[in-house]
């Protein structure tokens, strides 16, 4: 690590040697030149003072059911790759599902999308961090929490030696090139570890490399215990088509929940999601508003490469335990 004349610390991109400015508190940074992610060594990290409490902008109603929904199109950000057109609609559809089907109060849902004018509702790295803190802060027995992310995922070389595949998974915020991705280690530390006995968290992550992005110990199959922390994520897949209106993972999850009866098991839900993906999306209309009220008539690539996965904190029989929010 070196220091420039203006006092900023810099490192070299591991892949193209471009000069990257080190952001205080960050563990990784993405190069704007080659798009690759470089891990910042512990010795080179700059400490940053984090707020002890969630800022007033995130002090929303705190019912027993609350959710954070994030959708990022990366409009104008992805050099030469085009933008994703599904994530914002994914958030709208997920909000409608939670409110209409599962009784989540609308005032207990925070939505971060890159089409909003309020700077505290943009899906920047800082805002995502604050929203995650808000989600679990003061959680208690009986709480049902939902974290939904629709956007880009990434993999970063693991330096903690706690990943079997030698890579950490990550989600990409709006200011990815300035502040880097949010690693699975941080996500686990922020929204999994603070959970108390009896509080339940479900995360639906519609992004590449997202199956273990909450860093939970058990993945899919025969995945039992009264308190479940379930993360439904897609395995590595091609980037969704630019013309897609909703993401494959989000679409299949919502469609499966709508089509299956109350009390469906996790195993049956995953099977239904897989069938919807395999059959090119199945019924292509989702309940609830999308844009100006139009139904979702196009979905991201259902080539069969993407597949729903389930990870969780405890072992259980997926074909016996009912799915419930």
Automatic annotation (TrEMBL):
Pfam families named in the record: Peptidase_C14
GO biological-process terms attached to the record: proteolysis
Family statement: Belongs to the peptidase C14B family.
Name used for this protein in its record: Peptidase C14 caspase domain-containing protein
MF annotations from Gene Ontology: cysteine-type endopeptidase activity
Organism per entry: Miscanthus lutarioriparius
Top-level division of the source organism's lineage: Eukaryota
Domain Peptidase C14 caspase: 64-312
